[in-house]
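Our collaborator T.R. sent over the components below with a one-line note: 'Predict the complex.' Nothing else. No constraints on interfaces, no templates requested, no preferences about which chain binds where. So this is a plain run: every listed entity goes in together, and whatever single assembly comes back becomes the starting point for the next discussion.
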Amino acid sequence: MSLQPLSTAAEKATGEDGSPSGPAPRTGKPVGNARLRRAVRENLVAYLFLAAGVLCFALFSWYPIVRGVLLGFQQVNFSEPARWVGLDNFRRLVDDPLFLTAWQNTGYFTLLALVFGFAAPFATAVILNELRHGRSYLRMTVYLPVMLPPIVTMLLWRQFYDPGPGLFNNVLEVFQLPAQQWLESENLAMVSLVLVSTWANMGTTTLIYLAALGGIPGELYEAAELDGASIRQRLWHVTIPQMRFILMITLLLQVIGTMQVFVEPFVLTGGGPDDATVTVLLLLYRYAFVYNDFGLASAMSTLLFVVLGLFSVVYLRLTRSKG
Amino acid sequence: MVGMSGISRRQLLGSATAVALSLALTACGGSGDSPSGVDKNGVVTISVNGMPAKTQAVDRKNFMEDVAAFEKSHPKIKIDAREGQMDPKTFAAKLAGGQLEDVYYVYFTDPAGLIQRRQAADISKYTGDVPYFEDIDPALMKVFKDAEGKTYGLPTGNYSMGLLYNRDLFAKAGLDPDKPPATWEEVRTAAKKISALGDGTVGYADYSKNNQGGWHLTSWIYSMGGEVATKQDGRWKAAFDSEAGRKALNALHDMRWTDKSMGTRQLLEIADVQKMMGAGKLGMYMAGPDNIPTIVKQFEREYEEYGLAALPGTATLGGGDGFMFNPKASPEKIKAGLQWVQWKYLRSPERENVDSKRSQKTGVPIGLPQPRLFAGEAQAEIDRIHEQYANTPVKNYQPFIERNAQVETKVEPPNAQQLYTVLDGVMQAVLTKEDADIDALLAAAAKKADTILASVK
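Returned assembly:
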């Protein structure tokens, strides 16, 4: 179906200087209305499809967000009307001894995820891009973990981390290194979770980087090679500057994504040992589904929403300035 | 292409599609039932959950047979049976969306919170008509009552924590399977001997994740003669920073680190431990009798392989399950629901006879030492029927039956789930850190627990 873009109709209705085109109107309003009616009629299908889309978003995205924010200021039991409690939920949140721990742990996870998760896909993409043979096979291999359902990934890694007969400790044993308590040690637990997360998610980012690498003009490398640039210099002076924008975007998306970490601590550690892996989302889940306190959970999600919103604003500004 | 003269056929079709899409999206399911749930013939339809999943073919068939028999004997009641039990993840959504069953399943940890949040109907007015209501164990009824004595539900199952053990591993380790440990010292010795068998065998395992560590630590503390929370001058305070708390944690610490009889993998939860037991790699763990059929069914084991002893010490944690009623259910639905719950779960001796006979034939376990729902004569009669049709090795549960009555059964503390979260951390620290400072852990946890308990009315 060929649909006219909405702007075309508007453009048609006005002259080059923005004034209404065609014979001069006796009074501006009726003719304007007629043109508007015509524009609407001509694009009726587009508007109806748009309405369906807007309705979908309104119902399934915007309404839950607004409702979630409102719930943060209410006490609800879902069998009686909600009761407004002002900032009570937020006060109770701050009083929770785990509140600060959860934010600190989430910040730590995000930081570690950047250290591992940001560098690893970039390095992998650069290496894959340089390869002459087996590139497609390796691309698929790198992307394979993304195709596994998260719960399968977690259970698989739980076997790897098993302090008894687990894969990692077996490997350490081969090199005569001491066995580690991967998930049971307060110091190692978060690092172990980040490793799983990085392994599970790096495929997508690697593909984005590979696409970006493919878009860098070959002449730049040729010129650099003619100037006698080494691989490291080519990477530093050509690849990274050319990919600066995409690197910045994935960095922000990764911050937004990793701050919402949930499955890893939920399945692998349950927030332990000794609260070392309690994250914001895990605590939020407990408020809602263990303690059944939706007001408290919504207050927490509102806070998270604000923090992630700030990152999203930066993201939007960056993408807009590029556009 | 858009024609100048008006709307084209294609446009019309497109509009119709968009409108249909929008309508489909906005259409919300409405049941169309009358609020009382009674139709013009005077038949009341009640939705109930607790129907076994399709994968449990025998249980499901028995359940459906019961539904048919109940509807036959109660022609004015129709049962709309639904799968599933209490799921905290969907409970609030179902209640908010009007999808919560009229009669819904709960664990003993749920009623206090549900009553406090007014998410269950007050059924006090209707219990007078329930047969055998007066015979129900008052300790179990207490779980479903509020401070004013109003009733909000009925118990249909109960357990108290004991010690579940693998009889084969006991024999292999040179221990007598008919004389399981009766003190924590004996548990420690037995665990050491069992783990000495090697090949990844673990002597004793315990939970420490997803609130289950706190749940079991509570039972440990009770068994050492302590309390988790006590009421002082009308206010609840944490009570586990005590000698009993220290004794419980020291026992766990010593088994984990000194004897190394608790294996290396920690942060376990119920499914992990049941799997270890089902794989024949675990000697003992703290559990109620209901764990035995789960392990036997899930891991295709034999009932003969397992024994059950009472929990060492002076007290144990008890729990169970039951049914509560939708706060929006009409009086007619509540009355019908009460009849269903009583008929199906709080059976008369005649029904118990029919059920037990069928269970014996279809392999549903009969003869486990719990649940015991009634007090006095009613329970004695039911016990006699169970004995007659037992299809599980009752002698394996004798160590539990003989001593469990002397072990006090205590209920869960108020705000149990929140407290369990705090105690999870303590359990995790002791099981994952060899140099865990037990005094400091208890003191810090007590401080957190006091904050949680401050909100208990």
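Summary for T.R.: DSSP finds 17 helices and twelve strands in chain B.
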